[in-house]
Structure formats: C-alpha cells, structure tokens
Amino acid sequence: MPQTRFDEIVSREGTDALAFARKRHAVPEDATPLWIADMAFRAPEAVTSALAERVEHGIFGYALPGEAYFEALAGWFGRRHGWTVDTAAAVPTRGVVHALYLTLQALTEPGAGVIIQPPVYAPFFEAVNNTGRRVLTNPLVRAGRGYEIDFDQFEAQARQAEAFILCSPHNPVGRVWTRAELERMAEICLRHSLWIISDEVHADFVYPGRRHIVTATLDSAVDAATVTCTAPSKTFNLAGLQLANVFVPNRDARRRIKAAYAAQGLSQHPALGLVACQAAYGGAADAWVDQLVAYLDRTMTLIESRVAAGLPGVRFDRPEGTYLAWLDFSELGLDGPALHGLVVERARVWLSDGPGFGPGGEGFQRLNAAVPHRVLDAAFDRLETALAEAAARPAPQGG
Fold first, then answer.
1. Residue range(s) in the chain whose domain bears CATH number 3.90.1150.10
2. Is the pLDDT of residue 331 over 50?
3. Which end of the chain has fewer CB atoms surrounding its CB within 10 Å, N or C?
4. How far is CA 45 from CA 52, 96, 191, 283, in A?
5. pLDDT at 148
6. How sure is the predictor about 396, in pLDDT bands with cuts at 50, 70 and 90?
7. pLDDT value of position 151
8. If we measure between CA atoms, which residue out of 146, 225, 212, 145 comes closest to residue 185?
9. Domain 60-281 is found in CATH 2.60.40.10
10. ∠ at Cα 79 (76, 83), nearest 5°?
11. By C-alpha distance, which of 291, 347, 307, 319 is closest to 145?
12. What is the DSSP string of 147-209?
C-alpha cells in the first residue's frame, strides 16, 4: 500500500503534549500513548499556512470573529452536513467541554437532573457534578455487534431531568445514531421540556454505510430546544488552540449562555484559534478531511484483523463513527488493576481504562486509532506478546 501523509511519524516528545505526559500519569516511559483522543497527524496545510501568516504578522492582540469567520462556519456545515446554520446563533467558546459547563450553568437550576448515556466521555460526568447538577444515567445496552438505547428507561429519567447531554457520534462506543433513534430521543425530551445539549464534535468521522444527522435539523421544535456543540478540534487536530462553536437558535438561551461566558471574565477569543478555525472550515481543507476519513476507515480494518488474529478473548465491534476503538477484554476475567497492568505495564501500550467512562466500561479499554499504521502494528505486536505470556503462565494452585 502506498505511503500517505498520515503514515508520517511526527515526534511529539518535548512539546509538552498531554498525550505524552507519562510521568504525571505514572505510566512507563516507553509506553506508546494511545489513550487521549488527540490525533498524531499534522494539521492540513491550509491551516498551518494561515497560522504561519498570522504569526509572521507578529501582533496577537484581543480578537473577535469577523464576517469571514461566520461565513466559513456556514459553508462547512452546509457542504459537509446539509445543515443551513443561522450564524447569528453561533457562540464561540473555549472548547466543547467548556460549552457543556456554560450551558448547564445557564439553562438548568442547581440540583437539576441531567441525563447522560454511559459508557460515555468522562467530562460529561464531571460537567454535571462540578456545576452542582445531578447525573441521571441511561446506560446503553450491548446488543449484537453494537449498542442500543433503552428508551423506556430514558423516558423514566426524563421525568426527573431538565437536560440531556447527547454524544453524537458516541464516544467511546462509536455509534452513529439513526434518524429514528434521534427522533425518538428528541420527542421524549420535548414532551418533558428538556434541553438537548448535543455534543457533535466527532461528526466528521463517519464511515461508509452511515450518515451523521445533526440533531437540530430534525424539525423546528427540536432546533429551538437544542444547543449544538461543535469544534474543529478533532477533525483538524486543533484541540490545543481552544476554540469551539456552539449553536443556540433560542434567543433567550443564547443570551443566557453568553452571560455565563462573560461572568467568567471572558470577552474575547483566542486569536490563533479563530484563524485556524476559519482556515479549516473555509474549503481548502475539505479534500484533506476526505483522505483522513478514508485512512481511518482502513485503520479500523487493520484493528479488526489484528484483534481477530492475535488477541484471543478480546472483542472489537467496528465503530460507525469517531476515530476511537472500544476494545472488550472482559472475557479475560481480569479486574481493573490487573487489566491495566497487562496492557500498560506488560504490553507498554497506554490506553484509556474503561471504568473511567462510567457504568458499562468495566473490562474495556479505549484506543485512539488516529495514528500511523506502523505505530498501531507495533502496539498490537506487544499486546499479542503480553496476552500470550499471560495465557502461558500456570494458574495459581490452591493450598
């Protein structure tokens, strides 16, 4: 297979990258970091050139998004998702997680119930708890080769809630929700007067056979009740530039969210984040994104083959979206510390421990697959060896 731009191995050692903060996380210095959802690929040239031009300008004063910025947003979501956005509804924030905090503080009361669907991105739990709200879980149900929603339980939780945080596509299980699933969740939320906070940061990573549907496009009533959280951070590997865009068509909700932002002492936005976002969404990087998703689709095929051929007792259900692999080690019968020890200490592969994603994460590990194939192959070689050695050790004898 010919080499692509995504096969380049770029060293991040010495860049203070969180992904490589091994000592801080008590991880062996030679462990390959495949834990945090932070791609190992360079941002597209359209973005790096725009940033270089701004850096060459040499002045980094206070900044606000201009007309061209909002035109880029509208163009991106129109081209890529068929979503005609009202740019007046866009509220730039410092990130999707920041937007979750702002939205909960602005639109719900202290002590309010907030539904989430574990196993799910850990900051969902943190955002609810740290803002003084109550987590209401609607655990996803393992079914066949994927996950489904327990709608009866969802409805029961909705009776106690003021908001629902939807992960679409879902991190870590990789579901891309169908229109029917989205409509049923939205109908329940509307009937019980819940705000829908839709985290769609992985929307651009959807594989053949599935299509991402923006929750707010279901109908006008859903649009009015939805806060859509988007960002160029995952798609273009720009998380460190701290910029997201939240779409809030409800005017009163938008006013309250902006007030919550200002109450944190924030009035401007990161200048380089604005530059990068505008360049990313402006059209010049579209082909790069298409190539990236195609590469990641081949990556998922690679993971399927490596798990099937060399990791007995491990299950991998190919995701419909995201660049994350949700690996099921539960058949090995290891508790959390033992599984962590096998993967991190013996195999020297640093993954995200499943219990961090809440109920349903026990026995799982999440792998960030957005790395060159050579890196993945080397990691799976070590996992194979570690599992084979563990299987060869005699079971302890009773006394």
1. 5-44+286-389
2. yes
3. C
4. 10, 24, 46, 12
5. 97
6. very low
7. 98
8. 225
9. no
10. 85
11. 319
12. EE--HHHHHHHHTTEEEEEEESS-TTT-----HHHHHHHHHHHHHTT-EEEEE-TTTT-B-TT
Looking at the chain, which residues constitute the CATH 3.40.640.10 domain(s)?
60-281
CB atoms within 10 A of CB 306: 19
* Residue pLDDT, tens place only, 121-135: 999 999 999 999 999
What's the topology of domain 5-44+286-389? Answer: Aspartate Aminotransferase, domain 1 (3.90.1150)
Q: How far is CA 67 from CA 70, 74, 278, in A?
A: 5, 11, 10
Question: Which residues partner with 195 through β-bridges?
Answer: 163
Q: Is the peptide bond before 169 cis (omega within 30 degrees of 0)?
A: yes
Query: Rounded to two decimals, what is the model's pTM?
Result: 0.96
Give pLDDT tens digits for 49-90. 999 999 999 999 999 999 999 999 999 999 999 999 999 999
Q: Which residues make Cβ contacts (< 8 Å) with residue 327, sequence separation at least 6?
A: 307, 314, 315, 316, 351, 364, 365, 366, 367
Cα 119 → chain centroid: 13
